[in-house]
Amino acid sequence: MIALSQKSLTEALSSVLTWRTRPGYLSKGGSEFESIHILFGRFLADRHSPNPLSDDSLLADNAAFAWGNGTPLEKVVDSQTAFDHLMLNPQLFRNAIAIIEPWEHVGHNPMGEAVRASLNVAFLAQRIADCDSVVFPLWQSGLFDLKKLIPVISSGMAIVVEGGNPSVRDPSTFEGSRCSHAEMVELTEQILLSRSPTSAPAIFICLGHQLAAQAHISLLRKAVAAVAAVDELTGDHQGKALRALQRVCEQIETVGRSLNVSKRHGGVVATGWHDLEFAVAENETKEVGDRQLQHYDAPDHEASDIPEVLIMAHEVTADEHEGVIDTSISYEHELNIAMFHSDEVNEEAILFANWAYRLLHDALIPCRHVIANSALSWLIRLPDAIEILCSTAEQGEVVIECSATCIIYRDFETKEVRRSFTCQFHPELLSDLRVVGMRQPPTYAELKTDDGARLFARRLYAGMQE
């Protein structure tokens, strides 16, 4: 993290003291969970109803609409001083979205502008539901103590992990950031493990989507290694529970080591789950601009090298759970979303992770009381399953098989389901790929008819209900 000089420390203290202490910017009575949830629901109810909030400009006190330039974008956690102030004032993050920035922008749009997409996340949340945002520019500050950071960001309305220029398949591309590739993967792992009945849902966008895929694979590798390292479990009479877990982990490792990742026009690009490109590989074509989402169709196991058991496990997951994007396609008839990337999450890796998570979850059910009192207790916090929600196509040909996922958690005791979401596309960006401040701010009426804004709001709305 940044080491502050006395002058910088004074400036940091002065900055945080200007932060609003009451959530909300447009509502006279302020904002809280209930009002934010209601306003998101109202936004999604139709495409034509008037704005229930004040039509006051969000740029009145911050004409450039830039982080740190004034309200409502004053909450920038770019130093330990700012983070300490945030921790001491929970009202600042409890009713706000935590936005994680791995990089200073997500790339350059066709106009040559650096696109800091987190600005649009903040604008959408505030314009639609008067929901504040707190940004964590980790590329600038470095990674804070995870034992303190995770409880803070998971206690708010939602966690949004933004995109960025680096590539998950190439750690060297994170050079120049104060938060390394390894640190971002570790943070993503901890966000995935933090989803609980009292936690915020997470939305991983573009680079975030790719980091989540990498984190799924690294968590599974750690789970297999952790189970193999245990000799006995307290309360595990005759070692039945441990042996059952070890058998499952041996299956996972065998498939993980042997599974290849292939591209339609490029042959095998990764061999086994230790390959750097097993989770994420370079896309055949760079996608920039609008693409239409379509329902995900699982591969035909008879014409695919993907093991049938992985395909069937995903079919079961898709049948058991309702996907937000599937629902959106049904409601909105078609979805046109802004794409802005050159890497993609591999279909094989997500099908594998879903199958492995399901195996682990089922193996843990009968012995969860034993595992809960052991060094393996963290396994209980793993997802239960992952569903691939949609693909994107260009001129009738699928370009990205895995354009979005739903990460599913099923509580062992209540059987209640919680979800987090990932997407390769940028629902917070409009088709021109420009950020608020560089373009005329969209009106509430314009957002009501924008597919990306509606999908972003629907994910928040759905996650808040769990």
Number of strand segments? 11
Describe the main β-sheet briefly. Answer: 9 strands, mixed
Beta-strand content estimate? 15-25%
> What is Rg?
22 Å
Order of helices and strands: HHHHEHEHHEHEHHEEEHHEHHEEEHH
- The backbone outline, from C-alpha atoms, is globular
CATH architecture: 3-Layer(aba) Sandwich
Mean pLDDT equals 90
**Total helical segments:** 16
Give the CATH class.
Alpha Beta
Helix content: 25-40%
Class computed from helices, strands and strand pairing: alpha/beta
The CATH superfamily name is Class I glutamine amidotransferase (GATase) domain
Oligomeric state of the chains present here: single chain
CATH topology: Rossmann fold
Query: Strand order across the biggest sheet?
Result: 2-1-3-4-11-10-9-7-8
What is the total domain count?
1
State the low-pLDDT regions, or none: none
Termini gap: 34 Å
What does this 3D model show about the protein?
The chain has helices at residues 6-16, 33-45, 80-88, 91-94, 118-129, 138-141, 146-153, 181-193, 207-228, 240-258, 308-320, 324-332, 347-364, 368-371, 444-448, 451-464; strands spanning 96-101, 132-137, 158-161, 202-205, 260-263, 267-271, 280-295, 335-345, 385-394, 397-410, 417-423. Strands 2-1-3-4-11-10-9-7-8 form a 9-stranded mixed beta sheet, with helices on both faces. A two-stranded antiparallel ribbon has the order 5-6. It has a single domain (6-464), classed as 3-Layer(aba) Sandwich (Rossmann fold). α2 (33-45) packs across α16 (451-464) and α9 (207-228) crosses α10 (240-258). The chain starts with 5 loop residues before the first helix and ends with a helix. 38% of the residues lie in helices and 19% in strands. The protein is built from 16 helices and 11 strands. By secondary structure, the chain is an alpha/beta fold.
